[in-house]
Specification:
The protein is α+β, with helices and mostly antiparallel strands. The protein has two helices and six strands. It starts with a helix and ends with a strand.
Amino acid sequence: MIISASTVYIGAAILQSLFMGWTEADVVIDVYFDPTLSEGDFLTLSISTPVGDIQVLGHVEFFEPGTLIFSDAHIAGLTRNALGWAHLRQVMNIALERGGFDEIIIKGSSRSTGANPGHIPRPFRVSRSR
């Protein structure tokens, strides 16, 4: 097996992103709103990370200034635990900074398939570090 310098560089970049955290440039967040496809405040977020892409669908509520509540959320795109809690928090912190929020709360919708159909996960909350 031949290992080139570019292979080593790519491997090092992947290891750094997995174990040392991501920079803000590593995460791309696109927001889609199409009123012809859904009613009200339903949004789709497409999030690109070094380990893969995630799609988040849900309703947006602004509970109070500085707080974003994303309810009835569905998250798809990566296999179970591919992102991990630490990287999910990192993505959320990047969203806090870019959106100018002090807090983001994601309230999941009831599961339709998989483990525990009908189960509603507890809210996931991330606040800005002061």
